[in-house]
């Protein structure tokens, strides 16, 4: 019954990531697949950009600024589309031009894709429910200290601007930028539903990424680059969209990397749009190039503000695609239109220059060492099991078949470019020794193998779909030779793919192990690394003890700063990485001397209004040691009394300085 309570929030999240984009897309006169697939990306752009303008205007972030931005953007886009249409009509004459459908299967295929999407969404939803266990569960990981506190801070301050969002931990004394699209989305879900907590809106946002944005983008991508899939292969594509452990669920288990999860889920649609724009597909896409260019540009702010390294990933994969486009264009035009050929070459070189520039500005301070050797890393790619202990054999077979098919045939052979790029980046981050060359390649991902591992499904997915199509074609030919018809086989094949794919992947030991691992990061037990069951019970008592405006002294490494995120009680720090102040330094190092040295401690206590101290013991989220001397041994220190205690978790009242 618990999950029923999440339905309104899940629907709110669905509304937020679809409707603003649909409104803007309809204003631009987009239709069909392009409109549906681009809606989440346009919505994320609105969700991420609108709070920047709201902050500039002094307006708090919420539903109304999003609505205003959507309306204004739709009006601007609609006016531009109208002017463009009038200009085209004058240029083309009274008869104008019309856009034809991609092929004779245009009316039939979308229905099968709808079925495939429902299957993918259902599988993802089941995975999601099993992994989280409860709509009120939260990730017991290091990065969640920041993410949940950031959402609470955004609610309290009304500041959802990515330009200044990082002031939560810098206090205005350092860089203010942080990509806040994820947090903006969660705040909107909470605002629309009126719930009191921030955990369930966060979990609703996870669902909409896993079960809506990602599978929709994957199916759109294969619709563009593989337009002649059979019905059975389309159903297989739906099953496969939710069959990779490396994404999206890896990033909701490790980290937790919510912003990257949202950002990477947007990439399939953009790759599909770029493939259509560059005419790399077997059949031309019905939208004109100008529409596709404008649409891609409109989606890029949302992608960047979801997470900048998603933009790095996009340009990395677009680079070989652009080379193929330039080569094809220059080769075809060289003999007849030399100037056009040089234009292709110039644009290709310009694109590579833009790639180099973006890659340079994406350089960050590396912090991870390689976890593997070369042979292991490459095997993990083929078996779709990066950083996982057990291989996905069925996916591995499909990947190998897909590779052979696209190498030996003309079926989207150009996809080898993005595939090789991501595999090289994965190899660099997972097997290459530390050094300048490794940093040049993957420092934009903090040298973090988990972020690159999450990109592998993006390039493996089309290969698996190609492999599935190949198998169905071969089996169909055998059936046709034997029975003279494939109608019966078509029904059998669809049923077979559901059984084989679901059982072979979803019930495999590898997937069971992965789901169990993710679930373990959301459990609240006696041994939870961030907030254990005793600590959680104590946190729930805080609003009844701590008055509004009073602050609690905490060591964030122990999870004590989650008091602010989960219960809205003010704390001295909200994250382990923060710009300290003299008053905070005094509290962290000298608070337990408030009774004996009031002239030294009490001014800081009064300045921050610290009335309590929360002791969660010495166990830290990463198992390290970052003691705060001023918060130790309060049980045996004069000037402090126990206000509440559950197990060893204790809330002390600061009686000194009163």
Q: What report would you give on this structure?
A:
- The chain has 658 residues and is mainly α.
- The protein folds into two domains: 2-98 and 106-518, no CATH class; 533-654, no CATH class.
- It is 62% helix and 4% strand.
- It is built from 27 helices and five strands.
- It has helices at 7-27, 32-56, 63-92, 109-132, 142-157, 167-170, 181-193, 199-225, 231-241, 249-253, 258-265, 267-277, 289-306, 308-333, 338-361, 374-382, 393-408, 416-431, 436-442, 449-453, 456-483, 487-506, 509-520, 533-541, 562-567, 582-590, 598-608, and strands at 551-553, 570-571, 610-615, 640-646, 649-654.
- The protein has a five-stranded mixed sheet.
- A hairpin with a 2-residue loop joins strand 4 and strand 5 (649-654).
- Helix 12 (267-277) packs antiparallel against helix 13 (289-306), helix 14 (308-333) runs antiparallel to helix 18 and helix 26 crosses helix 27 (598-608).
Brief summary:
The protein is mainly alpha-helical and 658 residues long. It has 27 helices and 5 strands. α25 links the parallel β1 and β2.
Largest sheet: 5 strands, mixed
Radius of gyration: 27 Å
Helix proportion range: 55-70%
Mean pLDDT: 87
Distance between the amino and carboxyl termini: 47 Å
Poorly predicted runs are 95-108
Tell me the strand order in the biggest sheet. Answer: 2-1-3-5-4
Strand content: under 5%
Number of strands: 5
């Amino acid at each position: 019954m618990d999950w029923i309570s999440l339905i309104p929030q899940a629907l709110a999240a669905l509304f937020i990531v679809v409707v603003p984009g649909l409104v803007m897309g309809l204003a631009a006169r987009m239709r069909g697949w392009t409109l549906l697939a681009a809606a989440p990306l346009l919505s994320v752009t609105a969700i991420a950009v609108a709070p920047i303008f709201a902050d500039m205007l002094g307006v708090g972030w919420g539903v109304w600024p999003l609505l205003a931005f959507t309306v204004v953007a739709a009006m601007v886009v609609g006016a531009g589309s109208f002017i463009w249409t009038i200009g085209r009509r004058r240029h083309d004459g009274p008869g104008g031009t019309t856009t034809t459908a991609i092929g004779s299967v245009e009316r039939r295929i979308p229905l099968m894709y709808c079925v495939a999407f429902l299957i993918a969404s259902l599988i993802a939803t089941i995975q999601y429910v099993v992994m989280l266990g409860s709509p009120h569960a939260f990730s017991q990981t290091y990065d969640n200290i920041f993410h949940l506190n950031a959402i609470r801070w955004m609610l309290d301050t009304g500041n959802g601007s990515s330009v200044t969002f990082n002031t939560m931990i810098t206090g205005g004394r350092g860089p203010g930028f942080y990509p806040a699209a994820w947090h903006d989305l969660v705040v909107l879900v909470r605002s629309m539903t009126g719930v009191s907590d921030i955990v369930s809106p966060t979990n609703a946002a996870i669902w909409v990424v896993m079960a809506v944005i990602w599978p929709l983008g994957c199916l759109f991508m294969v619709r563009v680059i593989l337009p002649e899939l059979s019905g059975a292969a389309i159903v297989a594509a739906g099953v496969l969209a939710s069959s990779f452990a490396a994404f999206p669920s890896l990033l909701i288990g490790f980290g937790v990397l919510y912003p990257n999860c949202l950002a990477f889920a947007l990439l399939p649609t953009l790759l599909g749009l770029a493939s259509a724009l560059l005419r790399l597909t077997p059949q031309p896409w019905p939208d004109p190039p100008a529409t596709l260019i404008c649409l891609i540009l409109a989606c890029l702010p949302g992608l960047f503000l979801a997470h900048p390294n998603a933009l790095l990933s996009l340009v990395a994969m677009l680079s070989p695609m652009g080379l193929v486009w330039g080569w094809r264009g220059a080769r075809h035009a060289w003999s007849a239109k030399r100037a056009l050929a040089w234009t292709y070459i110039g644009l290709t070189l310009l694109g590579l220059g833009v790639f180099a520039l973006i890659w340079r500005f994406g350089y960050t301070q590396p912090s991870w060492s390689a976890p593997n050797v070369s042979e292991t890393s490459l095997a993990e790619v083929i078996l779709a099991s990066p950083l996982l202990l057990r291989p996905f054999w069925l996916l591995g077979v499909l990947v190998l078949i897909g590779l052979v098919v696209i190498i030996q045939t003309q079926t989207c052979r150009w996809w080898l470019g993005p595939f090789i790029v991501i595999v090289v980046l994965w190899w660099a981050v997972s097997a290459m020794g530390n050094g300048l060359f490794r940093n040049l390649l993957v420092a934009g991902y903090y040298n973090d193998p988990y972020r690159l591992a999450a990109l592998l499904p993006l390039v493996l997915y089309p290969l698996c779909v190609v492999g599935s199509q190949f198998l169905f074609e071969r089996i169909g030919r055998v059936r046709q030779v034997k029975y003279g018809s494939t109608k019966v086989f078509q029904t059998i094949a669809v049923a077979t793919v559901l059984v084989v794919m679901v059982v072979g992947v979803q019930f495999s030991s590898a997937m069971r192990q992965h789901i169990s691992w993710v679930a373990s990061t959301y459990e609240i037990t006696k041994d939870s690394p961030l907030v254990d069951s005793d600590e959680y019970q104590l946190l729930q008592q805080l609003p009844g003890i701590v008055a509004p405006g009073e602050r609690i002294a905490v060591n964030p490494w122990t999870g004590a700063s989650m008091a602010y995120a989960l219960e809205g009680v003010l704390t001295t720090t909200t994250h382990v990485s923060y710009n300290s102040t003299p008053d905070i330094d005094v509290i962290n190092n000298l608070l337990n001397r408030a009774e004996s040295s009031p002239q030294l401690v009490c001014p800081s206590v009064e300045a921050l209004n610290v009335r309590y101290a929360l002791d969660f013991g010495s166990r830290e989220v990463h198992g390290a040691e970052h003691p705060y001397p001023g918060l130790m041994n309060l049980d045996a220190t004069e000037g402090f009394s126990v206000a509440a205690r559950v197990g060893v978790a204790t809330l002390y009242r600061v009686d000194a300085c009163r």
